[in-house]
Specification:
Blueprint: H1 23-26, H2 34-41, E1 47-48, H3 54-64, E2 68-72, E3 78-83, H4 84-94, H5 104-107, E4 115-116, H6 121-131, E5 135-139, E6 145-150, H7 151-174
Parallel strand pairs: 1-2, 4-5
Antiparallel strand pairs: 2-3, 5-6
Amino acid sequence: MPTSYQSPMRQDHEPQRSKSQGAQSNLAAGTIRVSDLLGRKGNDVHSIRPQDTLAFAVERLSTLRIGALVVTHSTGALAGILSERDIVRKVADVQGGEALELTAFDVMTREVETADEDEPLISLLRRMSEGRFRHMPVLDEDDTLVGMITIGDVVHHRLLELEHEALQLKQLIVG
């Protein structure tokens, strides 16, 4: 019997399994939808009315430790969005504290980019990056406000995915 001969082992008959990257694994992040992220994050949306003052809005932003408020009509319909950036610009234009007496309607962004629940997360991230905004209200098929996605939510989700991928690779290497 030659010295290089090795008797067959159980794994010799098992199909070879490869964990290398492929189109499916590399595009897996693109299959995550806005609704998936909202399901994990929750559907809380903090809003104010168009007639509320900037002073009130600033207090809400500070208390809630958030960067934007959705501005809604009494019916709940989306009227606009008021971000920290909108407020800072107006304070700079009006020269200080006088701006705090203005209403949300005076300062809010009226042309609001919104997300659909079925939109892929990667598409949402691309739109947020290209539009240079950090908050996006989510509407359902009836145009009802169902959530708010922030750039931080998307980044946090992606970091969790990367940690999971790293753990899988480590387990593959260690065995």
